[in-house]
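Page 42, continued from yesterday. The earlier attempt failed because a stray header line got pasted into the input along with the sequence. Redoing it now with the clean sequence only.
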Amino acid sequence: MTSPDAPRPVAPDPAALGPRLPSPLQEVTDGRFARHGVRLLLKRDDLIHPDLIGNKWRKLAPNLAAAGDRPLLTFGGAYSNHLRATAAAGRLLGLETVGVVRGQELADRPLNPSLARCAGDGMRLHFVDRSMYRRKAEPETLAAILRAADAEGSYVVPEGGSNAAAVRGCLALGAELRGEADVVAVACGTGGTLAGLAAGLGHRERALGVPVLKGDFLAADTLALQTRAFGARRGNWSLDSRFHFGGYARVPGELESFASDFEVRHGLAVERLYVAKLLYGLTVLAEEGAFPRGTTLAAVITGRPPAPSRP
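This time it went through. Structure tokens are written below.
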């Protein structure tokens, strides 16, 4: 037994991983925007860190600091970028991580590349049925999950990493873009990045969220996150929910063709589940005249296609 007087392990410091901050801002020339008088910038959050990419760094870093030396438990689906980033953080910082995965049936199947990457990075995967997963925020259900996963005492981060700490971590994204763009757009899963981004922008600038999931819940969720983080709604922000292509992880042929074409035009590896939907939506909005001539538009590149699983 460890003596109560023994020193506790030193908590890992995410800053020691050397994030590239502020992330680069890259201007691209694209006729689909230029012919409408819109200047397009790419906020390259995908270059912040090779493993903790984009908004995942901004949302995870404050939670990693808060976790200290405790195991970190979080939630996600079978293709969750958040689970992959959390697993990578655990490997790099020597922190135990547990991923609660939606879908008990997945436990009896070979791991897909995304979950295999998590396991390769040392994350302990715990699969739960979809009914329990939907109730994961209820205290009794969460306690049952922690017991079943042998993870009592863990620091719990919600699905997508979006909590008040994460929202405050994304304030810096808005601050880095003050004075650089009139409109800043970001793909949204849980609303945490949009909530922090909008709060960090200048008062004449606005944030636009492009949801990648079906449903009308995200405006309420984003407002709730801002209220928890700041006490009230902050910044000028809105959502356009037309570009989810049927829901999360849905990449039909039209979206695949668009993403491949964008890669050829601009030499950017386009992540399909979030970034492709964002960029597609912005091209449609430009064609619709949603941005007045003279607008500088910044698209936040929050991720890149996943690397292959380690053997």
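Notes: The CA atoms of residues 260 and 303 lie 16 Å apart.
Reminder to self: strip header lines before submitting.
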